[in-house]
Q: What sequence folds into this?
């Protein structure tokens, strides 16, 4: 590493640190991501752990007091006049007791708007309760006739939940990891624009290029400065995650998040090549722009690409061996692997890092190639 | 020592340089004078290798910027057409940055920076961030950046624009001082009085070509005019684009 490279790196860093806008940008992504997720999870936890009582309109409840009692135990209550209804109406026929006594099927009407999606879980709940009651009564009848109720069950499905606490956590943490990747791409953006399009806008580019500096040193120094900010953002996000989740009662969902310092440090290391790649890409784009604003517009478009890849992978759960070796996806796999208990092999990590560095290198080479052209430099 | 030989450069339809040839010698101040659009900036940019001429050659102390740009740039100080400052850095940090890019480190770097700050009489603004600097103060920073590495050749593109009387005096004395040290100074201008007062030699260029190359007095004699302004107008054949 040449001294010139260090000189440029430190000078750009000094300039960026004094720029409040860049600093705020780096910090805010780091803070907003995990906080947003925490709020979302809080809502999910609340929703999943508390089953509210359901009130339905009950017609003819006087004919079947046992059934009404059974429904009550299942949290399904008959509505009173003043209460808001769930839109479900149960009609118990007049001859309920009579048919029950003579072992004939009683039809209980569950009247509701079945096209209404929102209410479908409530309807299922009511129907499930009725089915259960049916089995209780039928089993009792069979037993009275000296038949084991088991003859009614030829095949029974048995649910075995293989989800470990870790893998359930992975589902949630996967979303958080997307925020970590986002922070890598967004935290250094302002610095990257300022050292490239900003340089042109403030008319300091010509003088800088006329110095005895190899262009590759110049662009690498600038990429390192922006990359440092990208790392700052992602490290902050990594630190924030366990802090934020202290306040969310995830254990109620049976989720256990272990995110120690060792793991955080390892993930930060994995993100270093990605930070350089993100910065190289941003420099590549914004050196084409003539002003800060123009660069911002271009970059916003370009940043869609890696984000889309990550989002698609996250939500489709698509997996392929190659993903472990390619830039962006490799880091995504390592992040996911570190939390769902299926860590990516060390060799795959190294290859992923190398491929990321390679693409960053190609981009930086492209930037310095562009700066050789007088058209690009002077905007002729 | 700067040698320009038969330089040609065309942008799309515009011919900026059309066989430009001149020398700027060590220990002399050479003025490149021409109306707006004569190709002065293009010429200077090709001296430090940011513009590649279509044909012809440039040599600075015997080295061509097209072949060895880094070596050439180490030997020249540049005051460009457009200079922007990093407004969050102080004047001293600006000068240090350039000194470091020229390979100065540690005490040697500090010594150079202190010397140039004293020389340009700018110790009062040295530790202020350049945001809000006046045009003259910005100029001083740019000049300090141009000479901090004590280049053998100094290339200035319209250095006096926007300067007040005091700053112009500082600039002039600086240039005289550098001439005493035997350095080669080339500066472009479209202000005749300045060129006439400062230069040992004037290169007048029009439409990318040299039309005259001599001392101001000799040029007056050549054209038979009393004032340098009249000589200039006669030489370029029109009074278009001249600013007094």
A:
């Amino acid at each position: 590493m040449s001294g010139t490279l260090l000189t440029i790196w430190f000078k750009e860093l000094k300039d960026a640190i004094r720029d409040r806008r860049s600093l705020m940008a780096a910090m805010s992504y780091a803070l907003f991501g995990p906080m947003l997720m925490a709020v979302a999870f809080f809502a999910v936890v609340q929703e999943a752990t508390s089953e509210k009582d359901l009130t339905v309109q009950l017609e003819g409840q006087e004919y079947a007091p046992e059934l009404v009692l059974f429904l009550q135990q299942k949290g399904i209550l008959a509505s009173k006049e003043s209460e808001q209804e769930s839109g479900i109406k149960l009609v118990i026929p007049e001859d309920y007791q009579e048919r029950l006594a003579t072992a004939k099927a009683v039809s209980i009407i569950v009247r509701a708007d079945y096209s209404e999606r929102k209410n479908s879980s409530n309807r299922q709940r009511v129907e499930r309760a009725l089915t259960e009651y049916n089995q209780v009564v039928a089993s009792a009848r069979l037993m009275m006739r000296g038949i084991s109720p088991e003859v009614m069950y030829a095949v029974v499905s048995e649910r075995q939940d293989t989800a470990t606490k870790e893998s359930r956590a992975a589902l949630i943490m996967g979303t958080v990891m997307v925020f970590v990747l986002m922070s890598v791409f967004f935290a250094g953006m302002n610095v990257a624009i300022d050292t490239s399009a900003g340089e042109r806008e403030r008319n300091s580019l010509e003088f800088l290029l006329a110095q005895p500096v190899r262009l590759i040193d110049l662009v690498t120094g600038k990429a390192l400065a922006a990359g440092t900010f990208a790392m700052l953002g992602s490290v902050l996000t990594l630190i924030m995650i366990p802090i934020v989740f202290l306040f969310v009662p995830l254990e109620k969902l049976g989720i256990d998040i272990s995110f120690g310092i060792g793991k955080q440090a390892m993930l930060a290391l994995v993100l270093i090549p990605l930070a350089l790649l993100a910065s190289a890409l941003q420099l590549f784009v914004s050196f084409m722009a003539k002003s800060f604003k123009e660069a911002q517009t271009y970059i916003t478009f370009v940043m869609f690409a890696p984000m889309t890849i990550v989002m698609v992978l996250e939500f489709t759960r698509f997996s392929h061996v190659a993903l472990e070796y390619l830039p962006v996806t490799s880091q995504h796999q390592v992040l996911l692997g570190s939390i769902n208990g299926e860590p990516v092999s060390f060799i795959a990590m190294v290859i992923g890092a190398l491929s990321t560095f390679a693409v960053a290198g190609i981009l930086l080479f492209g930037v310095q190639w562009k700066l050789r052209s007088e058209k690009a430099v002077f905007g002729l | 020592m700067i040698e320009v030989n038969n330089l040609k450069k065309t942008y799309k339809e515009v011919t900026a340089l059309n066989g430009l040839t001149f020398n700027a010698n060590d220990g002399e101040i050479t003025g490149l004078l021409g109306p707006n659009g004569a190709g002065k900036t293009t010429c200077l940019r090709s001296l430090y290798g940011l513009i590649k001429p279509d044909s012809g050659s440039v040599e600075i102390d015997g080295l061509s910027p097209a072949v060895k740009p880094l070596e050439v740039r180490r030997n020249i100080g540049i005051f460009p057409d457009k200079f922007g400052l990093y407004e969050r850095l102080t004047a001293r940090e600006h000068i240090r940055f350039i000194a470091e890019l020229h390979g100065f480190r540690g005490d040697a770097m500090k010594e150079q920076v202190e010397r140039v700050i004293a020389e340009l009489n700018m110790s009062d603004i040295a530790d202020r961030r350049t945001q809000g600097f006046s045009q003259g103060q910005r100029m001083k920073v740019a000049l300090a950046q141009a000479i901090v590495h004590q280049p053998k050749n100094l290339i200035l593109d319209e250095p006096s624009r926007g300067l007040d009387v005091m700053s112009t005096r500082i600039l002039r004395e600086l240039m005289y001082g550098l001439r005493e040290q035997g350095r080669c100074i080339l500066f472009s201008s479209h202000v005749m009085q300045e060129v006439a007062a400062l230069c040992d030699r004037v290169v007048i260029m029009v439409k990318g070509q040299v039309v005259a190359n001599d001392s101001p007095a000799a040029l007056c004699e050549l054209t038979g005019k009393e004032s340098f302004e009249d000589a200039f107008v006669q030489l370029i054949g029109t009074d278009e684009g001249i600013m007094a």
Observations:
- The CA atoms of residues 87 and 132 of chain B lie 8 Å apart.
- Residues 165-180 of chain B form the longest helix (16 residues).
